[in-house]
Design a protein that fits this description.
By secondary structure, this protein is mostly helical. It has 2 helices and no strands. It starts with a helix and ends in a 10-residue tail after the last helix.
Length: 49
């Protein structure tokens, strides 16, 4: 949950500073959670991802 909140805050910062293009920032915002939750899946109480 904290990773998602950090991603939202960081993405707002990237959009405000406009150092990179909006396309690259948007692709990064979509790809980061996909990679993060693929590497660290959410595990339920039964231990199943």
């Amino acid at each position: 949950m904290w990773v998602v909140f950090a991603l939202i805050i960081d993405s707002l910062g990237f959009y405000l500073h406009e150092q990179d293009s909006m396309k690259i920032t948007s692709i990064g915002i979509v790809c980061f959670p996909l990679l993060f939750f693929h590497i660290f899946p959410v595990i339920d109480r039964n231990g199943v991802a």
